[in-house]
Every structure is written in C-alpha cells, then in structure tokens.
Specification:
- With 521 residues, this protein is α+β, with helices and mostly antiparallel strands.
- The chain has 4 domains: 97 residues; 108 residues, no CATH class; 54 residues, no CATH class; 162 residues, no CATH class.
- Helix content is 45%, strand content 11%.
- The protein has 21 helices and 10 strands.
- The strands form 2 sheets. A 6-stranded antiparallel sheet has the order 2-1-6-5-3-4, covered by helices on one side. It has a 4-stranded mixed sheet with strand order 7-8-9-10.
- Helix 9 packs antiparallel against helix 10.
- The longest helix is centred in the middle third of the chain and has 23 residues.
- It is elongated.
C-alpha cells in the first residue's frame, strides 16, 4: 500500500509491505531521516483529533482513509531544520495523507494504456465541500452513506448536487466563475475519493468539465438559471470530442498498402472464391481500401455489394477489427466482462427502481443454472447494463424517449428457429443501427446469432451471447457506423471503460463517468 506523507514542506510516498503501526512508524522515520529513537515520542491523530494507536491503526486506514497528524514531542525536528539534526526545541507536525491510490493504479497498470494519475488533493476544496455538507440539512446523511458504502446512490448523488449548487449560487450568483465550479468538483472527489473517475484527465469531469462546460454541477446550474429566467451571454464554442466509430484512424497494423491493381484483383477473387483461407487473405489485402470506403459517405452503402463475403463468412468482422486496433484491444471484452464487469453490473442494478422486466433480468443474470424463461445469464447481465445507462432524453420535452426495456429491441431481437432470416430482413421498414438477431428454440437457447445492418444479416462466428455482443460492438468500427441514439451511453461506456478506445477523446455523459468510477474501484 502507498501512503502519501507530508513532512514540513516535503512530500513523499511511503510504501508499506506490512500494514502495521510499527512498520508504518519505521518507514516514516526511514523516509524522512527521523532517528528511530524518536519513535516513542510520535503520536498519531485522525481527522477528529482522536489518537490512533497500534490496536486501531489498520482498521482506521482501511475503513476511514483521510488526513492523519503525527506529533513529535519536545526536541523533535523542526520543519525548517536539517532532517539529519535532532536538536530542535519546538513540536513538529507530520501530515500523512492516506490516499487509497491502489484502485486507480491497479486499473492503469492492468490496462497498460494510460499513465498513473498522481494522487493530488485540493485540501481547500475538500474542506469547502465538507463544511457545506456538514452544515446543510441532509448533508450528514450523504457523508454517512459514503462512509459505509464508499459510493453514493443516484438519489443521494442528486441530493448532494442540489445542496452544493444551491450553496454555490447563493455565494457566487447563478453564473459562478469557472474556477469556482472546478473547485467544487475537485472538492467532491477529494472528500469522496471513490467517486473519482480514473479514466478521465482529472477525475472530476463528470461533476464539472471546464473544457465542455458539462457535468452534474453544470446541468444543475443551468436548471437554476432557467428557473430564475436569467439570460447570460453566448457560450464559448468548444472543440467537439470525436472519439468512437466513424472517426478516421490509422490501422494498428498491416503488412503494406496494396496497389490499385492488387486491390482490384483481390476483389475479383473474393466475388467467386468460397475458400476460407483465400477469402481471409484477400480481405486482409483489401483492408485499407475497405476502411476508406466505409468512411466515405458516398461509397459506404456499397460495402456489402463489393465485399459480399461478409454475408457468408463468419469471423471477417473480427479480422478487420484486429487489423484496426490490435490483439490486446480486440480481446478486452471477452477477458474482462466475465471476470470483472458482469458481477459489478449485477451489483449496481440492485440500486435501480425495480420493474417486472428488470427483476427478470436480475434473476436470470444471477442464475447459476440454465435459465428457463428469458435471455441467458450473460445476455441478461448485458441488458442490465443498458438499464444502468438508459436512453437519454432528446430535448426538454423528451420527444420519442424510450425506456431501457423498450431500447432492448435496438440491441437484440429474438427469432424462432426455422423462421426465415430473409423474411425478418424483408419486414424491416426503416433503417436502423446494427443489432443482434438471435435465432433459437427459446431466448435462453440460441443456436446462431446474426448482426443485422443495412438490411443485411451477417453471421456471427460466436455461438455464445458474450461473443456475439463482442462482434456487434466491433461491427460499428469495421463499418464506420455510429451508435443508435438510444444506446449511445451504453455503447460509449463499453467503448471507453471496457475496450479503452478513445479514452478522453469521446464525448461522455456524466452518468457514464459516474458508473465507471463506481465499477473500476
């Protein structure tokens, strides 16, 4: 465990291999050259100025990380004195800031795709938020809930935002300076470190993002401004975040870019050859040409006409995705969903308002045996994630807003085995974004999956629901297709949090960042 220690003007990390009071004092003395003979003079106090001793030290560190004060008796080292000298006469204070950095660092190390964020704390902002919450009705309950669960429910988070936004506008007006909004956001994650988003630049952007002006605090302020009918100047235009499918990107790897003649020859072979090895080889040869095609609005609709092998050769979507992003990214969902995210999604879903449909998904997702009615355990858990990230309202009047259960049809549809897939395609009356067509005897017993896109059914190589969903997600990138508006938050979470694609470069709702902060801890 890493403990951040401040001694006078110096700050250092102290690493403990053994979480004991004696080991802690020994490491502090070694780090700051404090003579071990002074250990008996050291007293440790928690944030309430209650003395911490060897009996409670481990429990306090695990359950209530915060600022600890270390007092040295008379004759201790002065902050301005040489650290090798023992001849002081004044007391000294060593501030130890116990930041539970391990969750963020472990995630970053596991992903290998972003640097570890230093554990900086804005103490002024932390004290401000703590003062507001402890002095306002309902604030103490918020802090108690976090202390017990290391998280906040959606209802409690909304209450916290309302309290803080009300205090902010009372003190600074309905259009507080950006610096104030940033301080409040910093204070929230400083006081409640497990609410920090380790995948964003600063960790607090889901509460207030100064670059885009979005976040829970920003949204509440806009509501207050609208209610008080105060018009302000035009907002400054921001550079849009453009991560996700459809973004032009260089392939992760390819042997060489084929000549026009080679591409034409390969396309001619693909039209007539059914040999899988030959098809895979020629598809790889035409990859660069095909990527340019799917990202060209005038040509993208012809991709299945030119490359018709997508319609009868499973595995080609996977091959193109690996050429685009590499092996590590391509494997992430299959590696991380069963081992990490499935259980966390199920746990988070217990905090949702129960409906008949939600309870069925939860029951099936938690079932260790074969499911009798409804989707299997894995698909039910994926649909629970959709309920955690439901369709967003489009505009103030919410025209056409779908419920999470209604949005399921935009992700997966069931077809009884023996029914014609072509008949399903013929019945499509309007274009839609890619979705799964699951064909089987029951929803829990699926024999084959297809990805339906542009009135074409592409056979999935995977036979299970996790693999089929993995292929559906990848199809968006292979064909340069945007997410369905109703599934945007859902797919964006999968993209940034599980596949780690375009992190920090993709526009995300605060809800996506908030859910990620809960799950990666």
């Amino acid at each position: 465990m890493l403990l951040r220690v401040q001694f006078g003007e110096e700050q250092k990390y102290v690493k403990l291999s053994e979480l004991t009071f004696v080991a802690f004092l020994k490491e502090v003395c070694l780090k700051f050259n404090i003579p071990e003979s002074r250990q008996p003079d050291i007293k440790v106090f928690d944030q309430s100025d209650t003395e911490v001793d060897t009996e409670v030290f481990e429990e306090i560190v695990k359950e209530s990380p915060g600022t600890f004060r270390i007092m040295l008796g008379n004759g201790g080292l002065g902050a301005s004195q040489s650290s090798s000298s023992c001849s002081g006469t004044s007391d000294d204070t060593v501030i130890l800031n116990f930041m539970m950095c391990d969750p963020v660092e472990e995630v970053a190390a596991a992903e290998g795709s972003q640097a570890k964020r230093p554990c900086h704390i804005n103490y002024e902002a932390k004290a401000l938020i703590e003062k507001i919450l402890t002095s306002k009705p309902g604030g103490e309950r918020i802090m108690q809930e976090y202390g017990k669960t290391k998280s906040l429910t959606d209802a409690t988070r909304r209450q916290m935002i309302n309290i803080l936004a009300a205090e902010m506008t009372e003190t600074h007006g309905t259009s507080p300076p950006k610096s104030v909004r940033v301080m409040y956001a910093q204070g929230i994650v400083a006081l409640f470190p497990y609410l920090e988003d380790p995948y964003s630049q600063h960790g607090y952007e889901h509460y207030y993002d100064p670059e885009s002006g979005s976040g829970y605090l920003a949204w509440r302020l806009k509501t207050i401004q609208r209610k008080t009918a105060e018009e302000r100047g035009a907002s400054v235009s921001k550079s849009p975040k453009v991560g996700g499918p459809g973004r032009g990107r260089q392939p992760f790897t390819y042997d060489r870019e084929s000549s026009d003649e080679d591409v034409e020859a390969a396309i001619a072979v693909l039209k007539h050859s059914a040999d899988e090895k030959t098809v895979r080889e020629k598809m790889k040869m035409t990859f660069i040409y095909r990527q340019a095609m799917v990202n060209d609005e005038a040509k993208s609709s012809d991709v299945f006409l030119v490359f018709s092998r997508f319609l009868d050769t499973p595995g080609l979507i996977e091959q193109d995705f690996r050429l685009l992003f590499g092996e590590a990214t391509a494997n992430k969902f299959l590696e991380k969903w069963p081992t990490t995210f499935k259980a966390k999604v199920i746990k988070e879903s217990h905090g949702l308002v129960p409906t008949t449909e939600l309870l069925e998904f939860m029951r099936n997702a938690e079932s260790a045996a074969e499911v009798e009615n409804g989707w299997d355990s894995d698909m039910s858990a994926i649909l629970l994630l959709l309920h955690l990230l439901p369709p967003s309202a489009q505009g103030r009047k919410r025209p056409g807003k779908l419920s999470a259960y209604q949005a399921v049809d935009q992700l997966i549809r069931f077809q009884k085995v023996g029914t014609s897939v072509q008949q399903h395609l013929d019945n499509i009356t309007q274009s839609s974004q890619p979705y799964l067509l699951a064909q089987g005897s029951t929803q829990s017993t699926i024999h084959s999956y297809f990805i339906v896109v542009d009135k074409h059914a592409l056979p999935c190589k995977a036979k299970g629901s996790v693999g089929a969903f993995d292929e559906l997600f990848k199809a968006h990138y292979v064909f340069g297709t945007s997410y369905s508006s109703s599934l945007s938050s859902f797919f964006t979470f999968v993209q940034t949090t599980i596949y780690n694609i375009d992190m920090g470069e993709t526009k995300e709702t605060p809800r996506v960042a908030e859910l990620r902060a809960r799950m990666v801890r």
